[in-house]
Amino acid sequence: YYPPLRPVRSRWLALASYSVMCYLAGVAWFMGLAFEPFTLRTYMSENAMGSTMVEERFPAGERALATGREFAAHKKKVGGMPVDWLVKTMQSRGLEVFTQSFTRKLPFPDENKERYMVRGTNVYGILRAPRAPRTEALVLSAPCSEGNNNNQAVGLLLGLAQYFRSQIHWAKDIIFLVNEHDLIGMQAWLEGYHHTNTTGGDWSPLQGRGGSIQAALSLELSSDVITSLDLVLEGLNGQLPNLDLANLFYAFCQKIGVLCTIQGKLQRNDWDTTSGYSHAAQTMMLMVLKQASGRPWGDHGLFLRYHIEAASIRGINSFRQYKTDTTTIGRLLEGMYRKLNNLLERLHQSYFFYLMPSLSRFVSIGYYMPAFGLLAVILLLRALDLWVQLGASPPGTEDGVAGGVQVSYGPSSPGVLSILTPVVISHMTGVALYTLPILSQEMAVQHFPVSETEAVVLTAIAIYTAGLALPHNTHRLLQGEGTEEGWRVLKLVALLYLAVLLGCTALINFSLGFILALSLVPIAAFITPHTPKALSAAIMVLLSPGCTLLYCVFVFQELQETPVSLQDGWMLFLSVISQGILDHALYGSLVYPLLALLIYPCWLLLWNILFWK
């Protein structure tokens, strides 16, 4: 007995309409998160930091700038980090000073920063707590950047060290760190401080330590005066610091009268206008794209893996008339550190999962997860429908619906090999995409006129593109044609696999999981062997993980108000690929292995279903 045509087609149309409605509802829910009435106002959850009633007296802004100019002169003289001068200067300010040397060989040259074999030295001084057993510590860091960048930050750090030395109320050690080679130096210092080596770096052990680090701030200033301070929160693998740290920064900016921004955008009060909503949506989407990248967007990003709440404060000097001097910035940092000094335990009472359309509003995990849930439920509905179809077919026969049309077939049942073979081959391709680009770079350089970095990126693109030929090779390996029930079982496996992947990803890094769901859910829900091959193949390629990354590059540039041409966008795309591989090798970013070993093979399973014979 075969069910009549109309009920089967009606069921397919109803399921398709429900899927479209859920998809549109998920996108609408996400876009509505930037509307101010749907967000929460930020508030301080930690009682020890609930008030900004401290008196900031830091007076030495001009002296800090003079120290910064002296640091710049010595840096230019030695052609790098002036280690001896920094050690002498920190010792003169009453700190216990130590150095750490490190060496790091990159898997392939970093053409953005023109480095391959990195050697450097970190210099740090410890201000011991005079009123506590020295079991806890705070960190203030400033990277030693190339050229004239960040000299003012180092000068202010040394000025604050001298001023803090004269205070007697510190209950925690304060570590003043000047790290060389930005994130590589910071990674070496953190691994040395915590006796770990997760990335294979070579560094000397630390001779001096403070207590357990409770919080850290990284300072970036490259101008004597600034118009606003930008707060950078996104860390490694999309981790964010406790929201109270952002609340503390915002509270002191409001108290002292400093313009503050997030994602480089000022807060607006006209939320009920189209332009006001657009501004908040752009700010939130910038945060989503940065978090989805999985890379640390400042030196603070590496502290978060050690459960240390950290953020970067970046000075911006634009054409606005409003100016803030270094003394004011020093008072803001003094106030923040005095409040952090009052902590009796680690920051934990506020949110760790959130999005921020502005510094005064936030979206908690309970508000944004339904947007992802509406997309994920589509996969479960389609999987349930396939399960019902497979269970309703009598043994040895096949009937059902594909593309809205009733289909009937003769006796057949899928073998384990017909299902297992595409799964294994797809994941082997993912393993090749993960391992071969770096392993084959020397061979590629010998046979082609490309650099090592170009060889790695082009090899990755070549393997990614070669995966499109897998359905043909899979069928040749099987030496026969697949069954109608076979592709349904394979799609059921792919749907459940993708649902679990996206769900786990969204719990850890919502932004990455949501972006992947936007592109993968439609093709996973509607692809069958009976859909038009050419149109479906074009849509699948356009919604593949690689093309999604390309779209994100262009969208990110548009949101930053720095649009690029197609050629420049393509070059940025290649640079993003190389940086993603480097971030994984140097700092342990998980985005590249996730895409190569899990997401891409899952997409290949859907590609196999489209060309199922």
UniProtKB/TrEMBL annotation:
Associated pathway: Glycolipid biosynthesis; glycosylphosphatidylinositol-anchor biosynthesis
Gene3D superfamilies: Zn peptidases (3.40.630.10)
Transmembrane region(s): 12-35, 365-384, 415-434, 455-474, 494-527, 534-556, 590-612
One GO BP annotation of this record: attachment of GPI anchor to protein
Function: Component of the glycosylphosphatidylinositol-anchor (GPI-anchor) transamidase (GPI-T) complex that catalyzes the formation of the linkage between a proprotein and a GPI-anchor and participates in GPI anchored protein biosynthesis. Binds GPI-anchor.
InterPro entries linked: Gaa1 (IPR007246)
Organism whose genome encodes this protein: Oncorhynchus kisutch
Quaternary organization: Heteropentamer. Part of the GPI-anchor transamidase complex, consisting of PIGK, PIGT, PIGS, PIGU and GAA1. Interacts with PIGK.
Keyword list, A-Z: Disulfide bond, Endoplasmic reticulum, Glycoprotein, GPI-anchor biosynthesis, Membrane, Transmembrane, Transmembrane helix
UniProt xrefs under SUPFAM superfamilies: Zn-dependent exopeptidases
Protein's name in the database: GPI-anchor transamidase component GPAA1
Presence of the UniProt keyword Secreted in the record: no
Matches recorded under PANTHER family: GLYCOSYLPHOSPHATIDYLINOSITOL ANCHOR ATTACHMENT 1 PROTEIN
GO cellular component terms, semicolon-separated: GPI-anchor transamidase complex
Listed Pfam families: Gaa1
